[in-house]
Design a protein that fits this description.
Layout lengths: L3 E3 L8 E3 L1 E7 L11 E7 L4 H7 L5 E5 L18 E5 L1 H15 L2 H20 L4 H29 L5 H11 L1 H4 L13 H6 L1 H10 L5 H19 L4 H11 L2 H7 L12 H16 L1
Parallel strand pairs: 5-6
Antiparallel strand pairs: 1-2, 3-4
């Protein structure tokens, strides 16, 4: 996302375009242990330096679109360990959808239909264990993906480079290793729609607000957006949660009184807050 911010630097009159990066986790599709959450990070740009600094301590899988800055995370010799990029099948599908809508390409239609079969399988196994998802993918999806690759490789030999569908094929084949990582790990999704969905509220806010006002305003916007969206992901009404945590029960006063230790502020996080309220309601009912 690219919120426009009026610089707080003295003497600057023109606006500058900065960025919101989104980092999300959602283990619910495979019943994993992590609570769903999203963090928006305000940055001056959207280059390699920004994403490298944000993930300097991270290693493991990263589900992303094909934005080129992410490739810098896979460089050899990272002190904190390697990062494997799992690319988004929905982005690849979108390339073929665009070609079909505009040119009615039969090949594009065939690819879309093949991908629909894969998504149908995913819909059936969503919410099951990572082990079960992996087993089904190995049994059913791996062959479909192999057939799809063969189709694309055969097609690219016989069509002109100027053919609109050629660009979609090259995009997909160029990312193939990352597009198929989900076949070997049941925790991975087939696309990055978790982040895509969680950026919509920020995008809408950007349209309505247009300007963040200053770098400080943009940072506050990112923090507030992170809190509100994470509350929604955990099934909470954001106003009710924030009202209880920040207004009715003044956190600072509770720290001073000793009710909440400064090292135990995680109790105020949406998932812990939700559980505490559920426990309180059960106690009252009893």
């Amino acid at each position: 996302m690219k919120p426009e911010c009026r610089s707080s630097k003295k003497g600057r009159k023109r606006t500058k375009t900065c960025q919101f990066w989104a980092h999300a986790v959602d283990d619910r599709p495979w019943n994993g242990p992590a609570y769903p959450a999203v963090a928006y990070v305000f940055a001056q740009g959207r280059g390699k330096a920004e994403i490298q600094s944000q993930l300097v301590s991270y290693h493991g899988f990263l589900q992303v679109d094909a934005y080129k800055a992410y490739k810098s995370l896979t460089r050899p010799g990272r002190k904190t360990g390697t990062i494997a990029l799992a690319y988004c099948l929905a982005h690849a599908r979108r390339k073929f959808v665009d070609v079909y809508k505009k040119y009615k390409s039969e090949l594009a239609k065939t690819v879309i239909e093949r991908l629909a079969e894969i998504y149908a399988i995913e819909a059936k196994i969503r919410g099951t264990s990572a082990e079960h998802r992996l087993s089904v993918r190995q049994e059913k999806t791996r062959g479909l993906m192999a057939d799809l690759k063969a189709l694309l490789m055969d097609a690219i030999k016989d069509i002109s480079a100027k053919d609109p569908v050629a660009s979609a094929i090259k995009y997909t084949l160029g990312l193939w290793s990352g597009l198929t990582l989900f076949l070997d790990d049941g925790r991975l999704e087939v696309d990055s729609n978790t982040v895509e969905r969680n950026m919509r509220s920020i995008a809408l806010g950007r349209v309505n607000s247009l300007f963040a006002g200053s770098d400080g305003g943009a940072e506050s916007w990112a923090i507030l957006g992170s809190l509100l969206t994470t509350a929604k992901l955990n099934g909470l009404d954001p106003y009710t949660w924030l009202n209880d945590v920040l207004e009715r029960i003044d956190v600072l006063e509770r720290i001073v009184s000793g009710e909440i230790k400064s090292t135990s502020l995680e109790r105020c996080l949406p998932w812990h807050w939700k559980q505490e309220r559920a426990d309180m309601n059960m106690a009252v009912a009893a």
